[in-house]
Design a protein that fits this description.
The protein has helices at about 1-25, 25-35, and strands at about 35-40, 45-50, 55-60, 85-90, 105-110, 115-120, 125-135, 140-155. By secondary structure, the chain is α+β, with helices and mostly antiparallel strands. The relative contact order is 0.23. Copper (II) ion (CU) binds next to strand 4.
Length: about 160
């Protein structure tokens, strides 16, 4: 009698703890934990004079940005999981997940872990700017790409 009473008490305590955890907003936490990458500046759809220096800054949430380790050799070394660096694509759009981001072809790598650059003397037209995260071997990652569009006007000439 004493033993079964004790088991019952433990079970109730266990259920109580589990119920408490479920009652907290698990879905909201999951959404907040989703990794994402974005432009801090410029704003999507913004207009700029061709005379201006256009500052570009990237940001990421729930995904660590890290410089490629010194001496990393994609032939022999394994890229670190769950971290990467920024890439800026001019008029490229997002590459499919799992592809290696090329050198050139409109892509600029930020393998030193930096998150800013500038656009100067840009000819007047509309630009599509893409920020996409790639790992140590520049391989694109799920859900980590954003494209915006900005317009550069003729400036003061
Ligand atoms: Cu890269």
């Amino acid at each position: 009698m004493g033993v079964s009473g004790l088991v019952g008490l433990v079970l109730v305590a266990g259920l109580g703890a589990h119920g408490g955890a479920a009652a907290s907003s698990g879905n909201v936490a999951a959404a907040q934990d989703a990794p994402r990458v974005f432009f801090v500046t410029p704003a999507d759809g913004s207009r700029h004079s061709g005379d201006d220096v256009i500052e570009i800054e990237f940001g990421a949430e729930n995904y660590p940005i890290s410089a490629i380790p010194e001496g990393f050799d994609p032939e022999t070394d394994t890229p670190r999981a769950g971290m990467g660096h920024y890439h800026l694509g001019y008029d490229t759009g997002c590459l499919p997940v799992g592809e290696i981001i090329p050198e050139g072809q409109g892509w600029q790598h930020f393998g030193d872990g930096s998150n800013t650059t500038m656009l100067e003397n840009a000819p007047a037209r509309t630009y599509s700017l893409t920020v996409q995260i790639g790992d140590d071997e520049h391989r694109t990652q799920e859900g980590l790409c954003t494209t915006i569009s900005i317009e550069v006007t003729g400036g003061g000439q």
